[in-house]
Amino acid sequence: MKKETKASSPLRGDKRGAPVIIEVRGLHKTYTETEVEVKAINGIDLSFEEGEFTAIVGPSGCGKTTFLNMIGGLDVPTSGKVFINGTDISTFSSSKMIDFRLNNIGFVFQAYNLIPVLTAKENAEFIMQLQGRPKAERDKRIAELFEAIGIAGKENIKPSRLSGGQQQRVAVARALASKPKFILADEPTANLDSKATAELLDIMHELNRQEKVTFIFSTHDKRVIERAERIITLEDGKVVSDIIVNI
Amino acid sequence: MDLLLAWRNIWRNRKRTLITVTLVTLSVTVAVFMRSLQEGSYARMIENAVGSFTGYVQVHQKDYWDDKTLDNGMTENDTLMEKILSADGVKGVNLRLESFSLASHGNSTKGALIMGIIPEKDTLMDIQSRIKGGSYITEEDSSVILGSKLASFLNVSPGDTIVLLGQGHYGQSAVGAFPVKGIAKIPAPDLDRQIVIMPLKLAQNYFSFPNGLTSIVVLFDDPQRTQVITDKLNATLDTTSYKALSWQKMSPEMVDMINSDRAGGIMMIAILYMIIAFGVFGTVLMMTEERKKEFAVMVAIGMQKTKLATISFLETILMNSIGVIAGIAITIPIILYFMYNPLMMTGKEAESFEKLGIEPIMPTIMSFKIFFHQILVILSISLVAFMYSLISIMRLKIIKAIRR
Ligand SMILES: Nc1ncnc2c1ncn2[C@@H]1O[C@H](COP(=O)(O)OP(=O)(O)O)[C@@H](O)[C@H]1O
Ligand SMILES: [Mg+2]
Description:
The complex is a heterodimer. By secondary structure, chain A is an alpha/beta fold. Chain A has a single domain (3-242), classed as Rossmann fold (3-Layer(aba) Sandwich), CATH 3.40.50. Chain A has helices at 64-71, 94-104, 120-124, 126-130, 135-148, 164-177, 194-211, 222-225, and strands at residues 20-31, 38-49, 53-57, 79-84, 87-88, 105-108, 182-186, 214-219, 230-235, 238-244. In chain A, the strands form 2 sheets. Chain A has a 6-stranded mixed sheet, sandwiched between helices. A 4-stranded antiparallel sheet of chain A has the order 2-1-4-5, covered by helices on one side. The longest helix of chain A is centred in the last third of the chain and has 18 residues, at 194-211. The radius of gyration of chain B is 30 Å and the shape is elongated. Chain B has 2 domains: 2-49 and 254-402, no CATH class; 63-238, no CATH class. In chain B, helix 2 (14-54) packs antiparallel against helix 13 (368-395) and helix 11 packs antiparallel against helix 13 (368-395). The longest helix of chain B has 41 residues, at 14-54. In chain B, strands 3-4-9-6-8-7 form a 6-stranded mixed barrel. In chain B, strands 2-10 form a two-stranded antiparallel ribbon. The A-B interface holds A 69, 72, 74-75, 95, 98-99, 101-103, 106-107, 109, 113, 115-118, 126-127, 129-131, 174-175 and B 1, 5, 8-9, 12, 293-294, 297-305, 307, 398-399, 402.
């Protein structure tokens, strides 16, 4: 197994040595509900630092989604531990875990998953609203984000009337609005055409630089992989390579 | 935010929500109207038979009710009267002497209920306001008032004289000729067919029963206090001689009839509500099932399940409240209309009511209780339906639901 440790990498540039926010140790996930046991994650040790822009890549079925679900606290490992900011998240009750996700993790899904009855703006501020942030703060933040991601003017439109690319931008805005510690995006561009994919990637990367927000996204799209600063490749639930790219 | 989300969610499938709301509205409308018609008729029935005739409570000599003869009567008695009047809530009494006789005029003879009353004081029957021909009697008169149906059967008009023949106190015969001073329309049909009203003193003479009484009607304001007052009287009176009876005890047939009729009506409404419950449940079930993925997304990004359940609860309550409010809004004018323009029964049904001594009309009643019961029923249906979505939300598996 080829594995390059981040700290020793000469390619990290200005991001080298930032504080570790996610640490994964001895992670295993075995699905037993199926006829044949599936070892979706089969021993992963990794850590992620603040400000990363990282792609988890590999063929379909290699365990990308399962991995992201576990570091996002949506799923529980069969063995091994996930530490976020040094805390073992398996110690959280399910309600505490929900609050933890609310305040620390942003999610972007392949299928956008916006709330259909809410407008673009209401969707984007949804998390801030759950956090109880005041209206003035929300308005300011959403206006700023919509401007940055190029959907200003679409505030009052319902998701069903937006294109896929626009919906995914709203989803990125929703994930980002509350300034979470990191954002997990599972194949965010899989449903987008190449133009929308390129635009979304630009936006994500720009936000990564400006807001110093950590992005971890899975993909099997070459064009997306090319844009990552760190590429972690999985195969059969194991890390087969972990490369840091200087771009 | 919860309320806004809930409101928008229920209108996602406009057609389905409208159908559900309409079902609830219809059932509430039908239920409220039927119940108010039923209770209105009962109230009218009780009012006619009890409220303006027997009174809600009477005191008798203890054996009188089981064997209604003059020999089981009592005599006017100050201590008894004081005890009754001093009972808490009692406003007054009406003294009566009642027994049966034959009444004849010309060639017609008919059994009649002779009632001696104190004309000015018998506010309960309020015969004075029911006079259709002639005029009312006074305490000193030696003339009588006839029920309108009896008068027409005997072919009597005011000014005519009728002959009464019966049995008086202790087997003495009672005979007399009495001028008819007035004809009264008594709202209870079977009474109207047989009643002869005369001043108490005249009746006591006719029956050779000086100071004799058969019944003391106890007057008080709130019919709801019937049982309380009955119990109180029986506690203070000398029960070796006297007994107070509630109207329910005096007219058990009416109580039975009302109860069985009411049960029948409630049964029908229960079936109606059962159907509605399935409709509401189906809608909530669909609203839950089709949004499991959305629920999972919301929990994934940080919404507590309790909050999600709150929204789902609001959705159910909102939808049903619209139905209930619309139902009530529709029913109120209908009830008001039929309160002032009561339905008249016709044909066989009317006849059978008349036979029971009940006016064949069905007024409605505006009763907060009836509305309240429907609200409770719909609320319960909502709660049961909500249980389904609550359980689904609590059991929601985020990963599984998002993968769908
Ligand atoms: N809930 C599940 N039950 C059983 N097997 C599962 C479940 N989720 C994922 N798997 C299996 O685990 C493996 C990894 O899946 P996944 O993490 O979705 O891969 P990827 O996202 O890289 O395509 C696959 O073989 C998949 O079939
Ligand atoms: Mg996947």
